[in-house]
Amino acid sequence: METLWSDFLNSRAGDWRGGSGLQERMGKEKWQRYFLERWSLSAPAPASGETVKELQAFREQLRALVQHYIAGGLVSEKDLEMLNPVLAKGPVIRCAIIQGGVISMEGVPLRNDWEQIMAEVAASFLHTLTAGEPSRIRICDNPDCGWIFYDDTRNRTKKYCEDKTCGNLMKVRRFRAKKKEQELGKDTTTTSGE
After folding, report:
1. Which of 77, 124, 125, 143 is most buried, with most CB under 10 Å away?
2. CB burial class (10 A; 0-12, 13-18, 19+) of residue 165?
3. CATH number for 92
4. Transmembrane region positions (predicted)?
């Protein structure tokens, strides 16, 4: 399951196939428009260069917090001191709505800018920590990937962001490494037996 906050964090990720470096999408207008449309958010795109730097800085702070949390750390007062000012820049009005006969409450953003987007991302992350199951937050086990995801599987054992990409790639890598190890073992047996 992808969340607003994980999609935001994954705007910078490694090449899952082991290619060179990180892929940075945050500054690209195409990614910005995709992100806004995907999550039904509104802000000017393309974002200014200064705004992109602010978004990237926030992303890296949030990524560090997620990595710390996944490693077994707890969210601290210091972490909240980083998140609360971001949340404060994104005011919302609560309103009741009815859809299909069901009443619910939604927060309607008062602004349409990237500061509001950062507040929505922070709120999404905090919602996962407080209302979701934060123990399901993962980083893909493919060391070349680094994709952050929420494990929504029943048995909570998902190791890779996608089984068809990273999962298959890592399976092939393990198979080849085992085969190479076996071949090296045969060579030493043959050489010592001659």
Report:
1. 125
2. middle
3. 1.10.3300.10
4. none
